[in-house]
Amino acid sequence: MSSLREGPATVVRREDYAAPAYWIDTVDLCFDLDPAKTRVLNKMRLRRNPVVPAQALRLDGEELNVARVLVNGAGCSFKIDGNQLVLESLPEGHEPFDLEIFTICVPEKNTQLMGLYVSQGTFFTQCEAEGFRRITYFLDRPDVMASYTVTLRADKSKYPVLLSNGNLVDEGPLPDGRHFAKWVDPHKKPCYLFALVAGQLVAREQHIISRSGGKHQLQVYVRPGDMDKTEHAMNSLIASVAWDEARFGLPLDLERFMIVATSDFNMGAMENKGLNIFNTKYVLANAATATDTDFANIESVVGHEYFHNWTGNRVTCRDWFQLSLKEGLTVFRDQEFSMDLCAEPSARAVKRIEDVRVLRTAQFPEDAGPMAHPVRPDSYAEINNFYTVTVYEKGAEVVRMMQTLVGRDGFAAGMKLYFERHDGQAVTCDDFAQAIADANPDSDLARLLPQFKRWYSQAGTPHVQAEGVYDADARSYTLTLSQSCLPTPGQALKEPFVIPVSLGLLSADGQQLPLQLAHWTHAEEGSRTLVLTQASESFTFVNLDSAPVPSLLRGFSAPVVLECHYTDAQLLTLLASDPDPFNRWEAGQRLALRRALLAILNEGPVTTEPLDGAFIGAMREVLRHPQLDAAFKELVLTLPSETYIAEQLAEVDPQRVHAVREAMREQLASALQDDWVWAFETHKDNGAYKPDPIGTGRRALAGLALGMLCVAARHTGDAVWPGKAYQHFKNASNMTDRFNALSALVVSEHALAREALTRFHALFRDEALVLDKWFALQAGAPDRNGNVLPAVRKLMTHPDFNIKNPNRARSVIFSYCSANPGAFHRTDAAGYLFWSERVMELDAFNPQVAARLARALDRWKKLAEPYRGAAREAIARVAAKPDLSNDVREVVTRALAD
């Protein structure tokens, strides 16, 4: 068998792309499924690519035993060269020929969860990005698209359900208690979209008729006992089918569409054509076991994977450098889907704010770290390392800017042209951008397309500096916008981006002002999008009677850092009156961030009162505001995260950042105590559970209020609110309220927390996803006495902990290392030692998960001493391990690079 650890990885470069020397037209696969010895018969019809010089056929394969190779039915010579099967004596000319390869693999030993593996007695596959080569020898690249016929054979008593891509065309019994199922996928696809599932599963089924009149069968497969948690996933799938056809005219193109859930999965979900395989986290939900966040995530991920049916499957990537072609576009589509399902504009705004928070707390740091890369990377050693927030979330923002520049209808027209040109093809990001521009020839995008595409080729987060000058005599206001972007690895100089800046102007008392640029003949109401294309440009607005308050980057119209010297008075005006909900929230965040940074940078002990009366009063006004939605209030009253605060500093003392944010939270809890009581009592009762925006918002605000009341009680010694929280925990009729109450007790470190945790575990000991929450809450708890790391080590010895299950590993190890900076960054470096141990332990059996954990110390160079030196030592300790996977080695090598 071949090994992934034979030697250093080869760096793959986008500029070296070459078309394959052979095309594969048809694939006929036959599986005899056995956990210890699965036999795979792979019959392919190939032909030489006439535009490529004649050369040997090199097929990719990993951990396979070859039993037979036939060409046109006759034996042939072959050799194994590393992880490739090489055939040199093939038929000449360009006529198709048949190639048959018979191999054996061992799914039960496949701990990487890539290729064909067994989880709890069920067969699953994961082939993206390069997992198909662990099933059979193949041209494992996305630009080779073929038609697939798949026959599955297995013991019927153990594996009664046999699934693969496409449509079921035949099934029946076989001798010795076995049976078979034959599937035909009517659409050509790359091998990364291949899937099979075999096991004891049950299905929720729904028959629908699409807008165009097509009849389809939808199925959600889960393990027996989980059927009661599938209704929301099915409803989300039905809504996705309807939305894609209504918004973009893209119908479901298969007789059936299947979702299968598994608890052992490295990713969130996978869009295999017609047979989506999901992590249970994004399928299973009912009121008793799932939070509002879980329900929202399921809706989003089900939508995302379904939308891939067109943006990723019908049109796919030419090569893996084009990953954002499908992922960035499909994230944008799932964001639009979730927003379109919100009836109220405020609910749409809440969704937008939540998406931007992810971008700014995860992607912006990535853009500023050692793993920084363009949305379309130029090189990689391990493609799995580039399934990143840059490719996904920043890629989605690039697509959103296209829609901003051509309009919603223009974008739909561009999508239509994209599919007319490229259906059934493997294409590039350039092809997509060209289609959107060509469908809108008079747009700013068409005019600026070559420059706009720098968003695909340049890494880093642009900074936009804004300065405004009011001329009282001319009654004009000149806004100067400048842009810059810091160097990133391999890119020292950055050319100007195309940056759409949506803006409005407010009077000092909060009234929205008409907009009239100097060269316009009349004023316009509302917002206007300016397009910044130069290093610096000025825009003059006229007919203004007083200095306006600029509301810039409305709706977060571009993924940039906005640097504007707002006064506190201006921010308070925006917070109180801006008609753009995003900028209203942003004003509150800026006010909080300003106070946090002042307290952090001041010398001496951390003040216990970093917040001033004006800020506290503004927060009270938001909390008590009669017109604002509860969900929006909860977002405004949630302080910026420690990670986001740290990113604003040149040098970071994580313990000081943690102490300041804790002081801010404790002061806000105490100063608004009466208001928190009102908020909790007003929003705690919501009737029968519904995961709709109104109920979700009310529960979120009640949860925040309860947490704040417990924090306040911690300082006063008052036992009333912890007691009420425990009662709320016991009486809750849904997981959101129950978990919010449990979190309030744990975060405030009240004595009742231990009792509540014990009770919670007893209630949900048989619910794996709920236990993940239980583990994560403890690993992510505030670290006031250095006790979190010992607790984490103890959790890893718990009978319910299993490091080989990615969800469980993430719940403990990632919650501590990646999501709890105050506990992770210890002055004694014990957190870093724990991190290095776990990276190496995980790497031994699941390099993909290990590499993601390795990213927890990406920003070590920003740390102050003693953290910086200790972090570097921990990274070097991992890098020195001789048998590291390519996944982890790429991450730690880039982290250590100067």
Count of helical stretches: 28
Shape: globular
Which range best describes the helical content: under 10%, 10-25%, 25-40%, 40-55%, 55-70% or over 70%? 40-55%
| CATH H level, superfamily name of the domain at 1-198 | tricorn interacting facor f3 domain
User: How many distinct beta strands?
Assistant: 33
Under CATH, the topology of the domain at 1-198 can be stated as Immunoglobulin-like
Portion in strands: 15-25%
Domain Peptidase M1 alanyl aminopeptidase C-terminal: 568-897
Pfam families: DUF3458, DUF3458_C, Peptidase_M1, Peptidase_M1_N
InterPro entries: Aminopeptidase_N-like_N, Aminopeptidase_N-like_N_sf, PepN_Ig-like_sf, Peptidase_M1, Peptidase_M1_dom, Peptidase_M1_pepN, Peptidase_M1_pepN_C, Peptidase_M1_pepN_C_sf
Family: Belongs to the peptidase M1 family.
Provide tags for this entry.
Immunoglobulin-like; nine-stranded mixed β-sheet; alpha+beta; 28 helices
Give a short summary of the structure:
Residues 460-563 form the Peptidase M1 alanyl aminopeptidase Ig-like fold domain. 40% of the residues lie in helices and 20% in strands. The chain is α+β, with helices and mostly antiparallel strands and 898 residues long.
Describe this structure in words.
The chain is of the alpha+beta class and 898 residues long. It is 40% helix and 20% strand. Among the domains are: 198 residues, Immunoglobulin-like, CATH 2.60.40; 142 residues, Neutral Protease Domain 2 (Neutral Protease, domain 2, Orthogonal Bundle), CATH 1.10.390.10; 103 residues, Immunoglobulin-like (Sandwich). Strands 2, 3, 5, 6, 9, 12, 14, 15 and 16 form a nine-stranded mixed sheet that branches. A five-stranded mixed sheet has the order 18-19-20-22-21, with helices on one face. A four-stranded mixed sheet has the order 31-27-26-33, with no helix packed on it. Helix 17 runs parallel beside helix 19, helix 25 runs parallel beside helix 27 and helix 27 packs antiparallel against helix 28.
